[in-house]
Design brief:
One of its GO terms (molecular function) is acyltransferase activity. By secondary structure, this protein is an alpha+beta fold. The protein has 3 domains: 114 residues, Aminopeptidase (3-Layer(aba) Sandwich); 143 residues, Gcn5-related N-acetyltransferase (GNAT) (Aminopeptidase), CATH 3.40.630; 88 residues, SCP2 sterol-binding domain (Nonspecific Lipid-transfer Protein, Chain A, 2-Layer Sandwich). The protein has 10 helices and 21 strands. Strands 1, 2, 3, 4, 5, 6, 9 and 16 form an 8-stranded mixed sheet that branches. Strands 7, 8, 10, 11, 12, 13, 14 and 15 form an 8-stranded mixed sheet that branches. The structure holds coenzyme A.
Length: 395
């Protein structure tokens, strides 16, 4: 039988890190211990667990601390990753035991939400996770934005290395996180991964001294592609300023690729824009993020519609129980359930689907994630109305 323990600092090198190359990289490769050692700072405050048998690390799982906006509340969230088992020890339950232990430790350390990129979504659905919508990529020729070049806009865009603008970039991310459902903000030691290679430009849109949009990007060559990361803005003027800035590359690059939110409609940015907007879900190469609640307390005080309902969460070690969710005061209040009428029975994944706004109560039923009586469908639909999470700021 294996034992599970937490490892810290350099101890990760001889334990958890021994599994990473085989699980996540092209192998065999002549990768050196120095390369792995160089990654240690990016794991500094991770919760790293290892399962050991006779002194050998057979499996590992880890999580980094972050924050995420859930229906208007910014909450401690854990980004789970680096789940790996030695090939000769797979399908013996190591991964599952590590996940249970990790969830418990994360809750103990104050995390109310957890997210991960799944190798195999059905495995994590059993652990209470639900898939969130993928961001899209919009691909278009910069010439398609030419009409914006003639538009007078009250504001400026400056361009500098991400290394020079990192603090401004992070400050704007914090500003967005405060307002956008689903937005994630990772700890500095994780975010520094973007800083160290410094292979991005940062465009910053400013109006009256206030930042209203940022875009990180790189250009892969003359006549090539301007590859932008997430299009982040707080006002539509901010978006217009960034798009007009992209348009200034009209005779320099032949295409632009930019990541946008699932509810962004690039075809409406200017009249007649030629654009392809797409998202591909594929496993394990392009998985949508999955998320779960580590405690029902994650919903306390959340923005909601009117409604009052009792739920019973089943099949989950952390959440199992009866709760009363009351939105009559404009924000969710949570109390113990009494077992009266209007009780919806939900798996943890079903509750996550409602909390994150990605599933309607009727879909919870059709997806096999719960049983919801008709009157409870109406209450839950109003209380936890559909919302599109903006899964930006990933760690
Ligand atoms: C993904 C990975 C970590 C799973 O680890 P694991 O230790 O095999 O996980 P478990 O044993 O708990 O579960 C794996 C499967 O074995 C099954 N299983 C668990 N115990 C079992 C047992 N005693 N007998 C037979 N099957 C068993 C589980 O039900 C699960 O089945 P499923 O695939 O149908 O869902 C491992 O395959 C791996 O390292 N893959 C490469 C890296 C990777 O993809 N990481 C995940 C990133 S999110």
């Amino acid at each position: 039988m294996s034992t599970i323990r937490r490892v810290h600092g350099d101890e990760r090198l001889g334990t958890a890190f021994t599994l990473y190359p085989y699980a996540f990289d092209a192998t065999p490769s002549p990768g050196t211990e120095d390369e792995l050692r160089a990654l240690l700072p990016y794991h500094r405050d991770n919760t790293t667990l290892v399962a050991e048998e006779d002194g050998r690390t057979v499996a590992t799982a880890s999580a980094f601390p972050a924050q995420q906006n859930l229906r208007g509340n910014v909450l401690p969230m854990a980004g789970i990753g680096w789940v790996a088992t030695q090939p000769d020890a797979r399908r013996q339950g190591h991964g599952s035991r590590l996940m249970h232990r990790l969830h418990a430790e994360l809750l103990d350390s104050g995390h109310l939400l957890a997210t991960l990129y799944p190798f195999h979504p059905a495995f994590y659905e059993r652990f209470g996770y639900v898939g969130l919508p993928l961001n899209r990529t919009a691909t278009f020729p910069p010439a398609a934005l030419a009409p914006l070049l003639g538009v007078e806009l009250p504001g400026q865009v400056t361009q500098r290395s991400i290394r020079d603008g990192f603090e401004d970039y992070r400050a704007f991310q914090r500003q967005l996180m405060a307002h956008r459902h689903g937005y994630t903000y990772t700890a500095d030691y994780r975010a520094a991964r973007a800083l160290d290679p410094a292979n991005r430009w940062l465009a910053t849109a400013v109006v009256d001294g206030a930042v209203v949009g940022v875009l990180t990007y790189h250009i892969d060559g003359y006549g090539g592609t301007l590859r932008a990361d997430e299009l982040l803005y707080s006002t539509f003027l901010g978006r217009a300023l960034l798009l007009r800035f992209i348009a200034t590359h009209i005779h320099q690059v032949s295409s632009v690729v930019v990541t946008v939110a699932p509810d962004e409609y690039p075809e409406s940015w200017v009249t007649g824009l030629t654009v392809r907007t797409e998202a591909e879900a594929a496993f394990p190469t392009s998985p949508p993020l999955m998320a779960r609640l580590l405690s029902v307390e994650a919903l306390r005080g959340a923005r909601c519609g009117p409604g009052r309902v009792e739920i019973e969460v089943v099949d989950d070690r952390l959440l199992a129980g009866r709760y009363r969710l009351d939105g009559t005061g404009g924000a969710i209040d949570i109390g113990p359930g009494s077992g009266t009428a209007k009780t919806a029975t939900l798996t943890a994944a079903g509750l996550a689907g409602l909390a994150y706004g990605v599933l309607d109560p009727a879909e919870v039923v059709t997806r096999g994630l719960g049983e919801v009586p008709d009157d409870a469908v109406e209450e839950l639909r109003s209380l936890l109305y559909r919302l599109t999470p903006h899964v930006f700021g990933k760690g």
